[in-house]
Design goal:
2 domains; 10 helices; single chain; 416 residues; D-Amino Acid Oxidase, Chain A, domain 2; 32% helix; FAD/NAD(P)-binding domain; alpha/beta
Length: 416
C-alpha cells in the first residue's frame, strides 16, 4: 500500500530540511525523502557562509568578457568545459541576457531583502533551539593583493552603499588590525558587517533533528524513481522504498531537481556548477572571522575545529572527477595571503554541484503544470544563505498564506 502524507519533500539538503521544519511547525504531516544521507550534496562541503551584504548577482556587465579569459584556463576561478550540450547553450544565452546593468540594479535590493529575511530566521532559530553548528555573526573581510582588485572592490562598496549596505574599505594597517595574520602581500581589504558563518552540514542535521521532534519524518536512502499523474496533479511518487501519495509535493533536490522533473515534462534551466573545498585542521590561534582571498576568489571560513578553503566554479556537467590543477591553484592562493598554510593538516578534499540558474535567482513557487507541486530549487551559490526563508515561503505557499516575500522574481516559469 502507498504511504500517505500531507506533504512529501524531495531533497535532504538545506532547502528541503528548512521546508520540513517550517511545515512541521505548522502541524502538517510531512515526510522528507533523500536518496543518500542528509546534507550529502552541496550543503555539505560549501563555505558555510550566510552572505548578505555583497548582494551582486553573478551575471553582471563584464562577466562574460572576463569569463572568456577564465574559460580558457581549466584552473581558473570560472571554467566552462566546452561541450555540445543544448541545455548548456540555452542556459548561457539566458545568462548573457541577464548581464545588464539595469538587471543588476533590480536584483540587488531583491537579494538583500531575501537574504536579510533569512538571516533574521537564522537568529531566531539559534535563539529558540540549541543548535550545535558553530554559528557566529562576525562579518567578513575581503583581502586584496593588487590595487586593481581593491579598486574594483571599492566600486562594489560604492554601488552597494546606494542600497543601504555598510562596507568599509581598509588600508593595509586597518586590515591587520581586523585580521592580524595576513602576509605582507596583502595591501588592503573591505569589511562587510552583515555576514554569518557556521558548519553547514551540522546546521542541516541539527534542524532536521528539531523537525523530527515536531513530527516530521526523515527517510534517507530513498531515491525518487518517477511519478504517476492524474490530470494536473501528481498522484504518486515512486521511490526505491515504495510509493508515496501526498496532497502536496515539494521538489527541493538542488542540481538533481532538473533530471527528477524531466519525466513530468518540466525543463528546469539548472546547470551543475562544480565547486571544490579543502578542509584542514584549524590552527589554535586562527581568528573567528571569515575572509575572501579576493584576487583569487578563494573563501576561507573558520568552522569550529576546522578551517575550510572553498573555491572555483566549474561547469562541466555532472562530472564528479577532481581537477588537481584547480586544487593546486587554491593552495597557491592560500600561500600568497596567509602564513603557514603549506603546513596545515588537510583532512578532506570535497567537490559538489551548485544548482545554477541563468539569473542567479532561485525558483520558488507553484508549478503551472501541476497543482500540487511546489518548486524550491536553483539557489546557485546561495543555498545556505537563502535556506530558512525559502523553507518558510514553501510552508506559506502550501498553507495558502500570503508569503512574507514577493515571489514574482522567483517564479519558476520566468524562463519560459
Amino acid at each position: 500500500m502507498p504511504i500517505k502524507e500531507d506533504t512529501l519533500i524531495i531533497g535532504g539538503g538545506v532547502i528541503g530540511v528548512c521546508a520540513a521544519y517550517f511545515l512541521a511547525e505548522q502541524g502538517r504531516s510531512v515526510t522528507l525523502v533523500e536518496k543518500n544521507d542528509l546534507s550529502s550534496g552541496s550543503s555539505y562541503g560549501n563555505a558555510g557562509l550566510i552572505a548578505i551584504d555583497h548582494a551582486i548577482p553573478m551575471p553582471a556587465p563584464g562577466v562574460l568578457s572576463q569569463g572568456l579569459r577564465w574559460m580558457l584556463d581549466s584552473s581558473g576561478p570560472f571554467y566552462i568545459k566546452p561541450r555540445l550540450d543544448p541545455d548548456l547553450i540555452r542556459w548561457l544565452w539566458r545568462f548573457r541576457g541577464a548581464c545588464k546593468s539595469e538587471t543588476v540594479l533590480r536584483a540587488i535590493p531583491i537579494l538583500l531583502n531575501f537574504g536579510q529575511a533569512s538571516l533574521d530566521l537564522y537568529d531566531q532559530l539559534h535563539t529558540r533551539y540549541v543548535l550545535d553548528d558553530g554559528y557566529h555573526r562576525k562579518g567578513r573581510v575581503f583581502l586584496y593583493r593588487t590595487q586593481a582588485g581593491l579598486d574594483h572592490g571599492a566600486e562594489d562598496v560604492d554601488l552597494l552603499h546606494e542600497f543601504g549596505v555598510t562596507g568599509h574599505v581598509l588600508d593595509a594597517a586597518a586590515v591587520r588590525e581586523k585580521f592580524p595574520i595576513v602576509l605582507p602581500s596583502v595591501i588592503g581589504g573591505i569589511y562587510y558587517e552583515n555576514y554569518a558563518h557556521f558548519v553547514p552540514d551540522r546546521f542541516v542535521r541539527e534542524l532536521a533533528r528539531v523537525a523530527e521532534t515536531l513530527g516530521a519524518r526523515i527517510r534517507t536512502g530513498t531515491e525518487v524513481l518517477g511519478f504517476e499523474t492524474s490530470g494536473k496533479r501528481i498522484s504518486k511518487v515512486n521511490t526505491t522504498r515504495g510509493d508515496f501519495e501526498a496532497d502536496e509535493v515539494v521538489l527541493a533536490a538542488g542540481v538533481w531537481s532538473a533530471p527528477i522533473a524531466r519525466p513530468l515534462g518540466l525543463r528546469l534551466p539548472i546547470q551543475a556548477a562544480k565547486g571544490y573545498s579543502i578542509t584542514a585542521k584549524r590552527p589554535p590561534d586562527y581568528p573567528e572571522l571569515p575572509v575572501q582571498l579576493a584576487d583569487d576568489m578563494v573563501a576561507v571560513t573558520p568552522m569550529a575545529e576546522f578551517l575550510r578553503f572553498s573555491s572555483t566554479l566549474e561547469m562541466s556537467g555532472l562530472d564528479m572527477s577532481i581537477n588537481q590543477r584547480r586544487l593546486a591553484a587554491s593552495r597557491e592562493a592560500m600561500r600568497t595571503y596567509l602564513p603557514g598554510t603549506e603546513t596545515l593538516e588537510e583532512l578532506e578534499i570535497w567537490r559538489g554541484f551548485r544548482p545554477m540558474t541563468p539569473d542567479d535567482f532561485p525558483m520558488i513557487g507553484r508549478s503551472s503544470s501541476f497543482q500540487n507541486l511546489t518548486l524550491a530549487t536553483g539557489h546557485s551559490m546561495a543555498g545556505m544563505t537563502q535556506g530558512p526563508i525559502t523553507g518558510k515561503l514553501v510552508a506559506q505557499i502550501i498553507a495558502g498564506d500570503t508569503p512574507d516575500i514577493d515571489l514574482a522574481p522567483f517564479r519558476p516559469e520566468r524562463f519560459s
